[in-house]
Design brief:
Length: 251
Amino acid sequence: MARLPVSAAPAWQRREFDVLSLQTNDAWNGSIIVDVLVIGVADTFNMNASHNSAFEQAQDFAVWLNDAARPWAGVTWEWDWSRQESTSGATFTFSNGASQNTSMTFDATAAARFGIASQSGHPIVGANAASGTFAPPRHGYVAIRRHKRQLDENGNASGAGCIRPGVPGLAHYLPQVSAAGTAQDAARMADIQTRGSHPRRAWIRDQTIHIFSQTGANNDGWHQYALGKVERARVNAALWSFTFNCVGDAI
């Protein structure tokens, strides 16, 4: 299927996104017992409840798995995600470079947030979409535009302009984020918004940037945006458009 045009913006000003991870008001205080079977020594990962998005938890878990203090030190771990066609969410996978069979025991909270049931083998694969994730179809129009600082000629934060106008290092990011999808995608986006935290923030992956760290964290172009109203409109019988009102600052 031919892709729809991303936007009319010039290429340097246009990027594509392919997954969103919303910070939610769900419980994020679970634990995961990990046992790399060839080593036979288990350790327990305790989730940081203040990191209330699936993206942040996956990053934390990958960094913990690769920490030198783990009994399997030297076994390199990574995480990845894929779109789940049946839900329009993202399922997570954890794998190690040595392909070592591993037992992971997720408690009820961790299983619900990651969408992964306790299992043994390699890799460890989620059967359900992780909490708060939205993965629009790749054939749709998905874009981050204007991810650059926007200068405000009047300054910000007070009548006197306590942030002076025309200072790029202090200006806000005002990206234009949009996507397209099916009625199922529209339902998924509406559903996860009902559990969004306040203030509402989301991590959105810019798929045109590819960076993987030595710690196993997936720093693959993720941006954190303050997420406002999400507008949706029906384009035709099969397609919906989405516009995400975002600010690229911590609010």
